[in-house]
Structures are given as structure tokens and as C-alpha cells.
Amino acid sequence: LTVAVDGIARTHVQEEGLPAALVVVLDGQGRALARAPVDALDPDPRRVENRFLEVGPRGAGIDLAGRLPLPPASTAKTLVALAALDAGLPHDFHTDCEALHGEGNMGAARLGLHGRYTIVHDFPRARPHGRVTVATGIAYSCNVNASRQALELGQARLEAAFRGLEFERPSVDDEVYAVTRAGFGQGVEATVLQVARAYTALVRGSPRAVACDEYWLEGQAGPTCRVLRSFEAADVAVVREGMRAAVYARGGTARTAAAAGVNVWAKTGTGDWVLDGRPATVAWTASVVEVATGEHFVVVVAIPGSRSRTGGEVAAPLAAKVTALLAARARGGW
Known about the structure:
Number of strands: 12
Radius of gyration: 19 Å
Shape: globular
Largest sheet: 5 strands, antiparallel
Number of helices: 10
Strand content: 15-25%
Helix content: 25-40%
Structural class: alpha+beta
Distance between the termini: 10 Å
């Protein structure tokens, strides 16, 4: 599976003219199944996860998917929503998500509580969505909705939520603008593996985020797993509703993450990043997948240096290709 996923990622990078693609695949219990890029494989064929190394001369030997911290961008919105709902945010919470014209083609919306702060919405092309709920705010990726939820949580609880999920850089400055930006995944950083582990909380029937040992042998009792955080099933259902709509509803931002013959719940993201001292973007898609056998998987893709292309444009199609591979594997077709 690792070799197949790595091959799909390499081909996608070449076809799309991208610098790199980082991929992590976990099973429904949080166990690592595959990761890309991979430069060297452990000679033991029983090992489910092998030695994953960076492709290219710079930083060779570094496990990018497991060690490179990146702003999670809008993939963090689902996690902020879970934390806010767990803290008592009502399920019928709603926000006006109207877009106002900003510089160039960027849309901006102002938080009514803190009008002096402008929150960029729907990077890079904003669309007015009007009133959104927790679920529809996820489906349409409304920055304003996520920022309001972050403000409801407050700096201390928001940072605790990221820290509890073991994000690489979970700290949030005690300043209103920093809190609002953290609501849509800017100012904090996580690896692709850490985001994947957080998304295990969104697997049906298992409302808890888990972290498992990265290496284990197929057929053995391992790996050892630990619970990072548990959530209420009703809260998870609200967030999954939004992720489902993101894939299948008109106007959803993750429609390109869909694949035939499987159920997909997904969230895309596009964030600001710095590459070699210059402004850059990182495109994301985090998917929860249910194949025909009833098995669940978590697929997370990050494209660092996506050249202003969004998660829906370049990360979600790669996630869909990996999802199709998992569907074929479940059917015994590979």
C-alpha cells in the first residue's frame, strides 16, 4: 500500500507541476498504513509502515509527513468546532458569513464583535453564504464562523485543544486577532500525521482522537495506541454532517475529494506559509473514508508550496485518487 500511495503521489506531483505532496493513510483505529513520500523501504515485507524519507537532496532522511510542521489552514475548522461544541457551544450556533469586497479578488468579512479586525474569507475567492450553522460553515469553509467559535472558546481553551491533539506548535497568542486566525488554522502548526491522528475522532462510532505507534508488524498484537481526546458522539455528528456536505452538497469546498463506490467526509484548506523565506501557500485535504466492506480510513494530503492553488484544486484530487485505491483494495481489485 505504501508503494502504491507513493506512486500515486509522485505522479500527481509531476502532472500538476507541484513541488511535493505529503500523504498519510491511517485505518479506522488510527494505525498507520501508508505515508508518502518514501525513498527507502524496510526489507521486512511484513512491516506495514516502512522508513519514510524525503525525496530530493535537501534534508534527505527527514520524514516530511511526520515531522514537517505546517499551518493546518481550514482543516483545523473541524477540530475547533469539536472543541467549541465540547465546551458548550449550542448545536444551532450560527453566524452571518457575508463576504465584503477587499483588495483585488480577495473577499473579507468583519466580525461584528471586533469590527476593527478584518478576517479574510474563502481564500482566494470569497462567496457570500449568508447565515451558516456549525455544519454549513464547515461545508462552505466560512472563516468568520470558525473565528467566532475560536472567540467563544477563548485563547486558553483553544490552545489547550491544539495542545491536547499534540500539534507541533499549538501556542496561540493572547490577542484577539491571533485567536480569530487560529480558528481557521493560521498561527498554529501541525504535521500531516498529527492532523491525521486528530481526524480519527471523526470516524463513525469512535468519537475520540487516537495516536498509535508508527511501526508495527502485520498479524501481531500491536501497535500501542493512546487516546488524545474524547468527544461526544452528538458533537461529532454535527461536524461530520458539515464534512459530508463539503463533499456532496452544491457549493461544498471538498467536492473533488469524492470517489466512486465509497462514502467520503472531507475538509479542504489553503493556508499562508513561508518557504525559503518567501510567502507561499500550503493546500490540504483531510478525508474520512468508508469503503464497501465497512472499513474506515483517514487520508490526509498536504501540498507545501502549492503556488496559491487551493486544497480543492490540488490536494483533494490526490486524496480522491488514494481513496479510490483503498476502494479497489477493499474489493480485492489490486
